[in-house]
Amino acid sequence: MKKPWSISTTVRNPYRLRNFLRILRKLEGQPFNCENQINYQILLIQNKLYKPTELSKEQKNIFTI
Predict the structure, then answer these.
(1) Residue 64: its pLDDT value, please?
(2) For the CA atoms of 7, 11, 16, 20, what is the dihedral angle to 10 degrees?
(3) Long-range contacts formed by 1-5: CB under 8 A, 24+ apart
(4) Which residues lie closer than 8 Å to 40 by C-beta, 6 or more apart?
(5) pTM assigned to the model
(6) In whole numbers, what is the pLDDT of the chain averaged over residues?
(7) In a designed cystine with 50, which of 13, 21, 44, 64 is the match (CB 3.0 to 4.6 A)?
(8) 1 within a domain of the structure (yes/no)
(9) pLDDT of residue 27
(10) How many Å separate Cα 60 from the centre of its chain?
């Protein structure tokens, strides 16, 4: 049986949640494992839906590209 993915309740803005789900759809049918959770986070960052904090100077330079 496939396990459903869970969305954090910290995203309270319904318009923001819609975009998070749009990105999540790219991983539809894949297992909810560490690798895909990392992939999901990367997709959110790449699509400017999430901005990581506490980055090193090098990481900030990569993020702003």
Answers:
(1) 65
(2) -20
(3) 3/31, 3/32, 4/32, 5/32
(4) 23, 24, 27
(5) 0.69
(6) 83
(7) 44
(8) no
(9) 94
(10) 18
Q: Is the residue at 2 inside a domain?
A: no
Residue 42: domain span? 14-63
Per-residue DSSP letter, 9: T
CA quadruple 32, 8, 52, 54: dihedral sign: negative
Structurally, how many domains does the chain consist of?
1
Is 46 part of any domain? yes
Cα distance between the two ends of the chain: 40
Cα radius of gyration rounded to whole Å, the chain = 13
| Residue 6 included in any domain | no
Which candidate, 46, 42, 37, places its Cα nearest to that of 7? 37
